[in-house]
Amino acid sequence: MSECLSRRALLAGALAGAVAMRTWGKDASRPPAMRRLIANENPYGPSPSARAAATRAVKNGWRYAVREVGALKADIAQLEGVEPSQVMVCAGSTEALRVSALALAGQGGRVVAASPTFFFLPDYARKLGCEVAEVPLDDAMTHDLDAMAAAVNPATKLMYVCNPNNPTGTQLDVTRLGEFIAAVSPRAPVLVDEAYLDLNPDWRALTAVARVRAGDAVIVTRTFSKLHGMAGLRVGYAVGPAELIRRLEALRVSQMSYPGVLAAAASLADAEFLDFSREKIRAGRAVTMAVFDELGLAYRPSHGNFVFFDTGGSPRAFAAGMRERGILTGMPSAAYPSWSRVSMGRVEDMQAFTAAARDYFRSPG
Ligand SMILES: Cc1ncc(COP(=O)(O)O)c(C=O)c1O
């Protein structure tokens, strides 16, 4: 009897909970979900073929994805025009940045990077006890390659070049970058972070992988988090000379997600989706830049899935004002105190951003 009662009580409780959840789910007073324009994600992904591959892969989720990683590595090697021994597949490209810092700069080595740039590698190198020489961007908010080359000294163990650069969205001239790598890499390996380069349909002509093929000490990192819209599935890779890749692999500890690896392989083969994704990001940028033109705000034309622009005031106040209008955005930069970065969502998210930005700049707060 008491068991029966407690069961009934449990059932009643569960039902009440379910009703409460349904009510809560329909509660019109709840604020709508925020539009995420903050982390350079790509809400158009994963591609339908990647989703299908990941869903099919879940039933094999009990296994380590060893053979599948080998197959993905072969696909990537073919795409990049290198040998599989020159590719490391890893759990997002930040893992490649991490093991590069660890393997090449080690404890106490010196790293040269631009400022501002993607924070991860310089920050991680500092945690390892490395000295980080920060070279300011030039007046066009582009890497100052001459100044970076001049900053190399005998203690320098790694150069970090983010191309296109996050947060400024600027892209280096491929010939100039190639000359820089050829000149500097005999003194210190160069890591070129190309997380956003494949948003450009001509990325094959622009990639520093050409310098890997030429035999230079250069590592190129790429990710499935941006163009492919798979940030949550955690797949990235590095391309470099086999000897450097071996040193990185020796320090890589994470195993890959089985659904992530199969989704990446499917996405790589989905040219139609990749073109669609590129076009939507381009269209989102156009909408965003148009409102900055209309409002008279300075911005850098961007090669990434984000735009860096001058709020003309406090980026924190702007972020707070946009949050009140249902938009999560921001990312201040110490080097440019009034500037902020907005990530591309869907084109309709950027239209909502446009309306919110107009409203904010007319009546801030
Ligand atoms: C320049 C750059 N590199 C790497 C990453 C990280 O990518 P992943 O998700 O592959 O770790 C980001 C993410 O924003 C980035 O901006």
Describe it for me?
Strand 3, helix 5 (120-127) and strand 4 (131-136) form a beta-alpha-beta unit. The protein has two domains: 30-45 and 272-362, Alpha-Beta Complex (Aspartate Aminotransferase, domain 1); 48-268, Aspartate Aminotransferase, domain 2, CATH 3.40.640. The strands form three sheets. It has a seven-stranded mixed beta sheet with strand order 2-8-7-6-5-3-4, sandwiched between helices. The longest helix has 25 residues, at 2-26. Mean pLDDT is 92; it is low at 1-27. It is an alpha/beta fold and 365 residues long. It has helices at 2-26, 48-57, 66-80, 93-105, 120-127, 145-150, 174-184, 203-206, 209-213, 242-249, 258-268, 271-295, 315-324, 347-362; strands at 35-37, 87-90, 110-115, 131-136, 156-162, 190-193, 218-223, 236-239, 299-300, 306-310, 327-329, 339-343. 46% of the residues lie in helices and 15% in strands. It has 14 helices and twelve strands. The termini are far apart. Pyridoxal-5'-phosphate binds at residues 40, 92-94, 118, 162, 166, 193, 195, 223, 225, 231, 236.
Brief descriptors of the model:
15% strand, Aspartate Aminotransferase, domain 1, globular, 3-stranded antiparallel beta sheet, disordered N terminus, 14 helices, alpha/beta, Aspartate Aminotransferase, domain 2, binds pyridoxal-5'-phosphate, 46% helix, 365 residues
**Broad CATH class of the largest domain:** Alpha Beta
The end-to-end distance, rounded to whole angstroms, is 61 Å
H/E element sequence: HEHHEHEHEHEHEHHEEHHHEEHEEH
Question: What structural class should be given to the helix and strand makeup?
Answer: alpha/beta
Low-confidence stretches: 1-27
Mean pLDDT across all amino acids = 92
**How many discrete structural domains?**
2
Residue fraction in strands? 15-25%
CATH superfamily of the largest domain: Type I PLP-dependent aspartate aminotransferase-like (Major domain)
Query: Which architecture name of the largest domain does CATH use?
Result: 3-Layer(aba) Sandwich
The value of Rg in angstroms is 23 Å
Q: Summarize the amount of helix as a percent range.
A: 40-55%
Cofactors, ions, other ligands: pyridoxal-5'-phosphate
Largest beta sheet, briefly? 7 strands, mixed
